[in-house]
Design goal:
Blueprint lengths: L2 H13 L7 H8 L3 H13 L4 E4 L3 E4 L12 H17 L2 H16 L3 H8 L18 H10 L1 E8 L5 E13 L4 E7 L4 E6 L3 E10 L4 H15 L13
Helix pairs in contact: 2-3, 4-5
Length: 240
């Protein structure tokens, strides 16, 4: 492993951790001596990496640090290109725009040769049927998920009968032909999945829901695994 590759690997190791990690642990992970690890930390700090800590205390990287010029293996590069192209082509307006902007930022910090390979990637996104029109913008659903705030929705079932719900949204599941909002439903006192094209109206409430989003998501995943089935569009774990 070259020094530049080692420094990038060290950055990635720090980014994966939410708490301070000792120099000894990092040195073992990188396969270098503790003195080399300290020199690498100092080198990254001198280049602008927001790494806090000191020998004997441990190190942590502050969130929001931008990586230096990026290097990817061919499979990583193709995965990025294909994934961003898929979202740019299939996502709603905000996500599609976000994918294109992210692609531009990634390309801007790539070495010239790698940039050409990324832009010329032969993995393309094929055509598909359009998603059903939705009355509620996906931006609102994603905003509620990020803010961990309750939503008041009007939801129509398969027969068109509408009901009022207050839900705690924690995930938006993207299928080829549908989007499904996963949430805790106060009306049912249980998890429910709502096909986005049946959400007739939605209001973002000021109140946050009482559990953390990640805790809800973990509970939901365990329930799905216990039932031994995937969440399908227009299908609930149990009837709505």
């Amino acid at each position: 492993m070259s020094r530049s590759e080692r420094l990038l690997a060290l950055l990635q190791a720090l980014r994966r951790r939410r708490r301070a990690v000792s120099g000894q642990t990092l040195a073992r992970e990188m396969g270098v001596s503790i003195r080399t690890l300290y020199r690498d930390i100092a080198s990254l700090q001198s280049q602008g990496a927001s790494i806090e800590g000191s020998p004997g205390v441990g190190y942590i990287m502050k969130p929001g640090f931008m990586l230096p010029p990026l290097m990817f293996r061919p499979e990583e590069m193709e995965a990025l290109a294909l994934g961003l192209r898929w979202v740019a082509d299939r996502g709603d307006g905000a996500l599609s725009s976000g994918a294109r902007e992210a692609m531009a930022k990634i390309v801007a910090v790539m070495p010239t040769e790698l940039r050409r390979e990324f832009e010329d990637s032969a993995l393309l996104v094929g055509g598909s049927r359009k998603l059903k029109a939705t009355a509620v913008e996906p931006d609102l659903l994603r905003a509620a998920i990020r803010a961990e705030r309750k939503l008041r929705i009007t939801y129509a079932d398969a027969q068109g009968a509408a009901s009022q719900r207050v839900v705690w949204p924690f995930a938006l599941v993207y299928f080829e032909q549908a989007r499904v909002l996963s949430a805790w439903c106060e009306l049912r006192g249980d998890f429910r999945n709502f096909s986005s094209d049946r959400i007739v109206d939605a209001e973002l409430l000021e109140v946050r829901y009482p559990k953390q989003r990640q805790a809800l998501l973990n509970d939901w995943k365990r329930l799905v695994q216990a039932h031994g089935r995937n969440i399908l569009p227009e299908t609930d774990i149990m009837p709505t």
